[in-house]
Each structure stands twice: as C-alpha cells, then as structure tokens.
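Q: Structure for this?
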Amino acid sequence: MIPPSFEYVRPGSVEEAVSALASSGDDAKVMAGGQSLIPLLRLRLSYPEVVVDVGRIEALRGVRDEGDHLVIGAMTTHDEVLRDPLVRTHCGLIAEATETVADPAVRHRGTFGGALAHADPAGDLPAVALALDAGFVIEGPGGRRTVPASEFFLDYLQTVLGPDELLVEVRVPKLGAGWGYRYEKFHRVAQSWAIVGVAAVVQRSNGSIASARIGLTNMGATPLRASATEQALAGADLGSIGDAAGHAADGTSPASDLNGAADYRQHLARVLTGRAVTAAARA
Amino acid sequence: MVQVSVTVDGQRRTDEVEPRLLLVHYLRERLGKVGTPVGCDTSNCGACTVHLDGKSVKSCSVLAVQADGSEITTIEGLADGEWHPMQTAFKECHALQCGYCTPGMIMAAVDLLNNNPDPSEDEIRAGLEGNLCRCTGYHNIVKAVQSAASQPASVGGVQ
C-alpha cells in the first residue's frame, strides 16, 4: 500500500519545527519515528498535506538527570529508553512497559514522545505516564508550557497539543525508596496491542500501602486512573489488595471489539490491577 | 521530489524520490534489491526487515527520505564472498520451508546476536517476536540462531 502524497519538511531545530507547523495550518502532521504514522498513511487513514519530520533534531534525544526528575527527550527511541541506565535505576516502570511495546525492529524507530503524542488508548506508555505523574513539556510559537499527564490526553488520539505545538520532552518524577512498580499487560500474541494493561506504582510503609497510583491502558478513549482503587489502597494492608482491585473498572466504559467485549475488559482490569499492585507492593 | 543519499549493501546511491516512497519500495523498485520482500505491508510480519545504520527496521514502515544519509544492509549484502554464518545455520538447521519470511528473519536474527551474542532460547524467541513464520513453527529457526551463536564469526560481522 502506498501512502498519499504529502509535502516533506525536515527541520534541524525545535524552533524550525514549530515555525514549519505554524506556517502549515491544520493539515500538518509531526512525524517522530513514524511507527504509528507511516502505517496510518499506508492504510490511507491519515491525509496530511505536510509531514514535519523531527527525527533529525538532536536536542529532542536522550535522557538526563535533573535531581528529583528524569527528563526524557521526545525523540528518544524505545530501544534507547530500554537501554538507558538512568531509566532503569529511577523509572523502572517505563523500562518494564517499553519492553512490551511492539517488537525490537519497531522499538529501534518508534519513540517515547511519539507514542505519547499519538495517544492511542491501547498504547502502553500513556497509562505509565499517568501512573508516574509525568509532565509533558510542549513548545509552541509562544514558548514552552508543561502539562501534567492527567490533563494531556483529551480523547481518542487527541491531546492538548495544538497544531503549531511540539512535544519536546517529558519530565518524570523519580520513584524514591519504598516505591515498587509493575506493568501488567494482557495481549493476544507477543507483539500485539494490549487488550488491557495496568501500570501500578505503590509506596510501602511499615508493611502496608501508604499510597498507590494506577494507570489503565485501553479502558476508554484515553488512558485512565483507577481512582476508586487508589483511594481504597491508601493506608491499606496488603491483605486488602484484592478488595481494592475489585474497584479498578469503576466508572470505565471500555470499547468492545474482536479482542474482547467491554465487560471482559472490565474483568481484566480488576484481575490485572490485583496482580500489578500485589507485585508492586512486594517489589 | 527530495534527494536522498544512502549506502546500500556497500554501494553509494543518490536518488530523487517522492517523500511518500517507502524504503522497501525504494530498495526493490529503484535499486532492484528484490531479496527484501514485502510481506504483510502493515508492519506486523517483519519479512521486509533490513538494517538501517546497523539496527533492524521494518522497511515497509520507514520512508526512503528518513533513511537519507544512512547505511542500509539488506539480505543481499549480508554475504561477504561466503554466506554469513546465520545464512549457513538457517540452511543446515532447515529453518525455512516456503522461505518468504527468511530474509527478514535472518536480518532480525543477526541484529539479535549483535546485541546479545549468547542468547537463551527465551531471548531468541523474544528477539524474533516481530518476525512471523507460518511454516516452521519457529523451532528450527531458534535452533539455527543457537547454532549461529555458537560460532564467533556470527557476531559483529555486519553493520
């Protein structure tokens, strides 16, 4: 299948990228690694007039340590994220989830920021960003702004990014001592999308759970927090994880598709939340 | 049209291409490198896997313009006078039947050993999860990778 025609722009800096977007109107599309966009183009599900390829902007690559945060450049590939010692040490949940994204060849091209900006609710990293309370650093013609993960995702494949804005980096708070994490993903075959995924971070204190944050993959049009379970876990002992996980699907309305009906997804969310929180609390 | 300069299997090339041209179509239709097949065309099957600057990629999911300035190795550039040890191992272990997935499978397997010269069976299966074979049931492919891994020349020989 052959993509539709488009004009191709390859800016060398963030400023050039933003100005290319600003001068292209609503019909421009940012391409990071292209592992979501190129299949969409080939299937003729997307018809941009201009593709702005940010793949050569070095300033968008890499991971750096800023004290209590890691800052991950939007163009850092999944493979680079996986191999990064800072990510492994301070944000192991990201490495764990990234390892389940697609397959090695796709991870060589696909990027951390691209996966987040694409905002597919079946993608693994949006729920992880929610659970970690990440901050999304966005640059536009008016300068930079930082949007919390809880406000970044608006709807199916929709985010707060304006047509002339670029996601440049993601600020991820380090998990300190006493925190455990787990990403549980249920999928049909090895490289496929999650039917449901659960990203959990749990803070332990004296044998019980001080607090927990839980992100749900593919349980709605956007990644969601399992708020009722989080509330039930605050201050709870480990024996009550099962009861708390029973609320993981509260308030969700997941889609039904060939991989599973909505009620099956809700069942999976409860089971996987129980597993993820249990593993995170024991880690 | 956009100009791209690439090195493919050791040969430098400069061509004018449409931005929408996929790398796999550039390799097959412009350069005649038909050793790299188009399989699923939806980035699932991995038949079109090549190395882009030494790393495996699915060439149906890369634009030719994205490869500008890069070095590309296809299955046709793997042999250096003699077969690459991975090619020999695939033959000796009977790791193919219809052969359609084989070019991509071999390119993915070489990349796997470049990253992990002594993989376990589980690591081999995980490393090849992006490459589908509908004939073999994978067992002989895994054996071939294990066999190639036991020969030091398999690793690092290909960029």
